[in-house]
Amino acid sequence: MQLSLRSSLKPKGPGTNDRHIAERILNVATSMPFVLLGVKTLRKDRHASTNHQLLGLSLVSVGVAATSYHAASGSLRRTLRKLDYWSISLCSTLLARALSPQSAFAGAVQMASLAMIPFQPTAVTAANTALMEMKFARSSQRHPALRQAWRQHVMAECFLMMIALRPVCLRLLRASNLQRKGAEETPELEKTWPACACALSDGSSETQSSTPVCVQLQRRAALFSLAATVAAWQPAVNAAPSNLKYGTWDGKSAAGGSCAIGEEGADCRKGLLGRDKLDTGIYGKALSPKAETGTAVAEMDDSYTQETLQVAKAIQKYASGDPFSPERPSIVKNLKQEGGEWASKYARGGNARKQSARKFYIAYDALLGHLVTSGMAPMPQAKLNKVLQNVDEAKQFLAQGR
C-alpha cells in the first residue's frame, strides 16, 4: 500500500533541467525573487486576514523550494523536485482562496486542491490559475479603476507564456521546415506532440525521455503563470477594500444604506423609505409670497480657523495614504463626517463669506463627489493635485485673515 501510494506521487524523477552551470545559476536567480515577494506580502499585510498571511508564507516556500531544487544535485533532487511542484500548487491554491475568502465554493475548491496536490500538482495549479483569471476579469468589468491593471496583467502573462512556449514553437517550426523540404526526418513532427501535451501531462518518465524539454516547459509555464497572477494581486485585489463587495452598496455613498441591488433589496429599500419622516408641508412654502433669502452660516472666528485646518489635515492624510490600506475606510469615514460638519457651519449650500472658505469648499466638494461616485477607488492624480492646490490656497487666505 505504501509503495503504491509513493508511486502515485508526482512529479517523478530528478528532472531534465539544470544541464550545465549557466542554466543552474539562471534558474536559481529567477527563483529567489519569490522569497522577496513573500516577505513583502507578509510585511504589508501583517494586520490582514489569515489567508493573506498564509499566502505570504507560501510565496516564501515557493522561492525556497525552487532555489533548493536548482542548487541541489544527486538523489536529493527527486525529493526537492516534488517539493518544488507542490509549493507552486499550494501557493496557487491559497491565492485563489484569498481572492474569495467568504465564498463557500472557493472553500470547497481549496480543500479539493489540497488533497490533489501530491498527485496532480500541475492540474491543481492550472485549475486555480483559471479561477483567479476569471475573478480578475469579472472585477475589471465591474470596477473601471481595475481595468488598466487587468490589461497590464493580461499583456504580461501573454508575454511570459510566449517565452515559456518558445521551445515547443521552435521544434514545430523545425519539423515543419523538414516536412516542407521533403526530408526523410518528417517523423520529427510526431515528437513535438508530447511537448505540446506536456502542460497537461503528469511528468512521467516516458514523457521525459521522449521530450526532454517537456518537464522544464511544464514547470516554467506554471511559474510564469503564478508570477503574472501574483503581479496583478497587489494593484488589483490585495487587501481587498470594503467597496469591492459585489452585489451590495458600500453603505457610505448616496445609495441609501446597504440594501442589495435588484429585487433582493426591495424590502430593505421600502423599510428605509418608511422611516423617512420628511415633513411634506414644506412643499407649500414655494407658494408663499414672501421670498426667503440668504443662508445662515456660523461666525468666522478662531474656531473656524481651527476646524478648517483640521479638515485640511484630514484631506492631506487621505491624499498621502495607501489606497489599499486597511485604515482607508476609517480615514474616509472621518473625512466625510468632519467635512460635512464644516460645510454645514461655514459653507452651507456653497455660500461662504470668506475667500478661504470658498476656496476650501471647492476642494472638499470635489473630493466628496469622487467618494460618492467611486467609493474607495483611488482619485485620479490630476484631480487630486487640484484638490491639494485649492487646500493650500485656502490655508494661505486663512493666514492673511481673508
UniProtKB/TrEMBL annotation:
A single GO CC term for this protein reads:
photosystem II
InterPro entries, from UniProt?
A: PSII_Psb27, PSII_Psb27_sf
Can you tell which superkingdom this protein's organism belongs to? Answer: Eukaryota
What biological process terms from GO does the record include?
Answer: photosystem II assembly; photosystem II repair
PANTHER family, per the entry? F15H11.13 PROTEIN, FOLD PROTEIN
Give the matching HAMAP family: PSII_Psb27 (MF_01481)
Q: Which protein, by its recorded name, is this? A: Uncharacterized protein
Q: Which species is the source of this protein?
A: Symbiochloris irregularis
Q: What is the lineage of its organism?
A: Eukaryota, Viridiplantae, Chlorophyta, core chlorophytes, Trebouxiophyceae
